[in-house]
């Protein structure tokens, strides 16, 4: 990979080698390879950087390193801000936002669990912070996206948990029940009858 003869294909090779190790379950090696793909404003190389950052972030989540994963997804957003005309950049931005929403949501759920176990206020504060961040990123998914309905469904849980689990502690109405219910009505509207979200009927 260090050969000058391979320089033009290095990003591509690193990405596909990372994919190979990822699919084979060697997550540490996969993450190491994904991390080596350099950023580039050239479409032929920059696309592999963006794909690698998505996979690196997912790999870090699976390795139990959500803070590091957030940094990788944010790197995509930073790249997009610097290269707004890069091909398909909105799709990469959307994947980054959706990934960040999910990481923060999971962090919020973990903090809720710790709060229920210990009743320490710091965990309630963390849960509130992470769930709100999760909602912020879910709401960045545009309505014309094929991910919009899924993001709406997932966001509903974040809203629901805010009110169901944290309202008693903070004595605060987050409007979560109303927002979650509004989202559920949207998901079950006749216009979206071909989309299936059975849990929304519970």
Explain the overall architecture.
The protein is mainly alpha-helical and 202 residues long. Helix content is 71%, strand content 0%. Helix 6 (121-138) runs antiparallel to helix 7 (148-170). The protein is elongated, with a radius of gyration of 19 Å. Residues 189-193 and 196-202 have low confidence and may be disordered.
Q: Compute the number of helices.
A: 8
- The unreliable regions are 189-193, 196-202
Through-space gap between termini: 53 Å
Percent in helix: over 70%
Would you list the SSEs in sequence order as H and E? HHHHHHHH
What does the overall shape look like? elongated
Summed over residues and divided by their number, the pLDDT gives a mean of 90
Biggest sheet layout: none
Class of secondary structure makeup: mainly alpha
- Count the E strands: 0
Using only CA atoms, what is the Rg?
Answer: 19 Å
The percentage of residues in β strands lies in under 5%
List keywords for this structure.
disordered C terminus, 202 residues, mainly alpha
Compact description:
This protein has 202 residues and is mostly helical.
């Amino acid at each position: 990979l260090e050969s000058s003869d391979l320089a033009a294909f290095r990003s591509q090779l690193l990405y596909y080698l990372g994919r190979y190790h990822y699919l084979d379950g060697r997550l540490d090696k996969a993450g190491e390879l994904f991390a080596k793909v350099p950023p580039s404003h050239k479409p032929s190389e920059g696309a592999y950087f963006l794909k690698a950052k998505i996979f690196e972030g997912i790999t870090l989540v699976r390795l139990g390193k959500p803070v590091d994963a957030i940094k990788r997804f944010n790197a995509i957003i930073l790249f997009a801000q610097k290269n707004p005309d890069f091909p398909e950049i909105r799709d990469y931005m959307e994947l980054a936002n959706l990934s960040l929403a999910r990481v923060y949501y999971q962090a919020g759920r973990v903090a809720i669990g710790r709060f229920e176990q210990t009743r320490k206020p710091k965990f309630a504060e963390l849960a509130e912070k992470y769930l709100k961040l999760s909602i912020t990123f879910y709401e960045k998914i545009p309505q014309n996206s094929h991910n919009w309905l899924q993001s709406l469904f997932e966001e509903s849980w974040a809203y629901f948990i805010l009110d169901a689990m944290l309202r008693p502690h903070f004595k605060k109405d987050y409007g979560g029940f109303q927002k979650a219910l509004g989202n559920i009505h949207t998901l079950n509207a006749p216009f979206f009858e071909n989309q299936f979200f059975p849990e929304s009927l519970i």
